[in-house]
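Lecture 7 notes: from sequence to structure.
We start with the chain below.
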Amino acid sequence: MRTFALIGRSLAHSFSRTYFTQKFAELGLSDCRYELFELPEIGELPALLARHPDLAGLNVTIPYKEQIQPYLTWLAPSAARVGAVNVVEIQADGSLTGHNTDYVGFRKSLRQFYPGQSTTNTTGGANGARALVLGTGGAAKAVVVALSELGIVPTLVGRNPRTSDLTYGDLSADVITAHPLLINTTPLGTYPATDECPPLPYAALTPAHYLFDLIYNPAETLFLRRGQAAGAHVHNGAEMLRLQAEAAWDIWTG
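Predicted structure tokens for the same chain:
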């Protein structure tokens, strides 16, 4: 039995097992299964691998996309560029290769949603498009790479001024107006804490704004609902999840 799994600290929100279980059924792969492994600390990864020698691949979620790197044998170019890992390929000899398919899934999904990206320049912002990236973790790193490839200038927003360009306290109405694209990469609003959202001046949002939330459970977060109330365009992370999962499957199956 080939086992694939998702690792993270809290996985109650995850649809990954349902997604891959359905995929295995559709492909007639009775020798494959998908599990969820909650790890209180990333240091428990070696013991997990020892207990499950049939593991063939891992998805990685919050908060381990950066913390997992010291446990890997190799970093694929995608992970090295992003600086975060969301897919691990497990070789027959036990070596671990980290990949990043988050940025691929996000880039493809954003291109369908947001009309403001450059189609000719990938060096960053030639078309004047600007985005606020809410959060500074591994998912934010993937988003920044994708935005840069699409010619959109990213500005990181976080709680710590040492790791972000702006703090949430810096987000005035003028800042919101100057950034038509807002992307939530934080877990705020994820099930079951669905009454949370990033602290923004939501009254500054207009129909000219586009809000992308990487969260897919619930399908409509408070962040997106408040954007909709202002007439903004909104998009959740379900399509990104599907796209990055398909890219992960391609990696696992060679």
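Points to note: Residues 81 and 145 are 8 Å apart (CA to CA). The radius of gyration is 18 Å.
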